[in-house]
User: Which sequence fits this backbone?
């Protein structure tokens, strides 16, 4: 079965501390994975995708096929990073989503 | 605003009533998706259009739900005989692409409350 698991509903860290948002997936083929972010009162938007291997707003994510993980990391959290973060897996046409992690950056 | 738009933004209805939502995708996007999101959960796929053809429907889309995309432009999602369990945020997204995935751009959503 195709599934995305985000084990943490809430993650709270201090400004300047490292952040790691966990994502694990279940997929039989070659996965395509994404991180979407939703800031307060804004719509969902793409943060990054694994095939691009890019860093957006200081965030990176590495696909680990052995551990079936796609964790999102940032070395130094900023207050503007506070948001809901969703990990998503590409299905046949649609995206399959995790339940999301609410990230709170404390000043 | 050239992004995806959805109307209405909020809808409150009584159980048993029919409701219809509209989504206007980004104009050149040929793919359109409907998702449903309940509190504390990520979006769940409902249905997908490529141009005017509805190519995929989730089993979540019961016979009370119907979606159309006439002429491959805007789309409507209708829920007949609403139930309290239909209360959710209904999200529309669009993308431009052929065989491979392209970034999905999301609308602000329509929040449905069934009393």
Assistant:
């Amino acid at each position: 079965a195709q599934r995305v698991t985000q084990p943490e509903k809430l993650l709270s860290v201090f400004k300047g501390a490292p952040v790691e948002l966990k994502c694990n997936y279940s997929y039989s083929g070659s996965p395509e994975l994404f991180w979407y972010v939703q800031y307060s009162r804004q719509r969902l938007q793409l943060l990054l995708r694994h095939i691009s291997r890019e860093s957006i707003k200081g965030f990176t994510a590495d696909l680990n096929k052995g551990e079936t993980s796609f964790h999102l990391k940032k070395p130094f959290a900023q207050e503007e990073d506070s948001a809901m973060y969703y990990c998503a897996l590409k299905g046949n046409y649609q995206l399959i989503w995790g339940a999301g992690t609410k990230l709170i950056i404390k000043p | 605003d050239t992004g995806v738009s959805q109307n209405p933004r909020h809808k409150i209805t009584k159980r048993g009533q029919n409701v219809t939502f509209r989504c206007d995708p980004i104009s050149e996007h040929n793919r359109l998706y409907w998702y449903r999101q309940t509190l504390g959960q990520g979006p769940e796929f409902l249905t997908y259009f490529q141009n005017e053809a509805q190519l995929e429907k989730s089993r979540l889309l019961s016979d009370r739900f119907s979606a159309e995309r006439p002429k491959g432009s805007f789309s409507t999602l209708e829920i007949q005989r609403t139930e309290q369990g239909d209360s959710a945020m209904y999200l529309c997204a669009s993308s431009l692409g052929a065989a491979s995935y392209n970034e999905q751009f999301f609308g602000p959503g329509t929040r449905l409350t069934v009393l």
